[in-house]
Amino acid sequence: MDTIKMLLAATTALLLGALAWNWQQQNTAAKDAPKAELARVKLQLAEIAREEQNLAAEKRLRDIGMIDSSDTSKASPSEVEEKEAQLRAIEEQNKRLQEELSLKEKEKELAEKEGGLIAQRDLEKSDKELRRARQISEALLMAKVTEYVEDPATGSFVTIQLLMPDNVSVDTILSVRRKSGIAGNIKIREIVAGDAIADVLPGIGPFAPEAGDELILAPAF
């Protein structure tokens, strides 16, 4: 492959990368980008496109025999060096565009996260149930229900596996978390080697723990 064809292939790849950057930038961040910034990017892309067109035209002339690809006198060393220098400049330009895109994506992601957090807190100020649901879902997992036993002779009790034993002791009240709500509460009766036995506390309506239920320390509402 002669030098011109190599330059054409490399420049075409750079053009595709730059065009992809331009499309993504316009669809994800153009709304927030300054007009001058978009104009600058479009100008750079136009310059890359012109260079690609020039190389493509030269390749077509070679393909139809109007330029002898073996005749090195048609392209002097200085001309080849100039085209190679142009290619290096395009490579550097594309690298800068990619770095700029990465930075803008990070800035946009951070802004979206901050905006979402602020919006969430604003909603919670006027909606206590929403705040309560978030606090329940974010509460640390203390233990899990292993089995719920109902025995008329000895009474009902719950066996649990302690996941954070340092935070649980006898008489600790744990809440059964289901999705973002609390289904009921249990009280630790006895702790034995990382496991525990607990009693179901009375509540509103019937409640029976199930194997696998998550147990948390209920947030203060």
Features:
221 residues, alpha+beta, 4 helices, 6 strands
Give start-end ranges of low-pLDDT stretches.
none
Return the domain count: 2
Shape: rod-shaped
Distance between the termini: 73 Å
How does this structure look, described?
It is a single chain. The chain has 221 residues and is an alpha+beta fold. The protein folds into two domains: 3-126, no CATH class; 139-216, Beta Barrel (Thrombin, subunit H), CATH 2.40.10. The chain has helices spanning 3-28, 35-63, 77-126, 128-138; strands at residues 141-149, 157-162, 173-178, 181-192, 195-200, 214-216. The chain has a six-stranded antiparallel barrel with strand order 1-2-5-4-3-6. A hairpin with a 2-residue loop joins β3 (173-178) and β4. α1 (3-28) runs parallel beside α3 and α3 (77-126) packs across α4. The N and C termini lie far apart (73 Å). 13% of the residues are buried. The mean pLDDT is 74.
Would you spell out the secondary-structure blueprint of this structure?
Elements: H1 3-28, H2 35-63, H3 77-126, H4 128-138, E1 141-149, E2 157-162, E3 173-178, E4 181-192, E5 195-200, E6 214-216
Antiparallel strand pairs: 1-2, 1-6, 2-5, 3-4, 3-6, 4-5
Helix pairs in contact: 1-2, 1-3, 3-4
